[in-house]
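Before relying on records like the one below, remember that each one covers exactly one chain. Contacts with other chains, cofactors or solvent are not represented anywhere in the record.
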Amino acid sequence: MIPRALAIAASDSSGAAGVQADLKTFTARRVYGMAALTALTAQDSTHIAAFHRVPPDFVAQQIGVVLDDIGADAIKCGLLLSAETIAAVAQALPVEAPNLVVDPVLVDGKGHLIVTPEAIDAYKRLLFPRARLITPNFDEARLLTGLLDATADDMPRMARALASYGARAVLIKGAHANSTLICDVLWEADQLYVFETPRLAAHNPRGAGCTFAACLTAELAHGHDLLTAVPTAQAYVRTALKAALDWRVGKGERAVLDHSALS
């Protein structure tokens, strides 16, 4: 039977990020993908023109009916936005959700905060303790830990601090740090692992973080451990970015990914 993965995330009408990136990644990684939408956006390659939140009870209903019928080997939480939605998701998930990956989307592509302090607290209380893995990027890790002046050298300390909220593992995505290498830091079972990969000349790619977390989710659905899944996800994102370096999608300047590229 093909592995199954559920993405709980917002829709990106331009197809670059959000649930569209998740489902493209699941398909590329040979996983049957399902989705529960948390928000709808009218956006293009340059900006979000309009935003519509899905009522929390309907988010929960989407999750419930899919899991009751099809089930899931792994679940990824993307953009949840509000404390109310986070609470609804937490209640709808099984008590022991299999391979729950929480990608706490707190900032937009320009680094601007898009959630309330109440939502940040809800992540810590309701979802992190149940997560197999949480995957904040560097900016989000600073917000979650309160270490607002942290540098790339502080990533191991931030990962340990985030693990104190109960997640079995923490991966801080280092794509926002300024260097020639992308450094991702994994904290699991009181051990620290550092994964480095060369940075491509892709300007602030749209959907790279979603894709990375979705690939990790797919690898967990296949039964792989994180020490295997992280380099696999790094290689997949790098291949997808490299394949699309000469693409010009819309009027925006940010790069996109070719999710169908084979790593």
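DSSP finds eight helices and ten strands in the chain.
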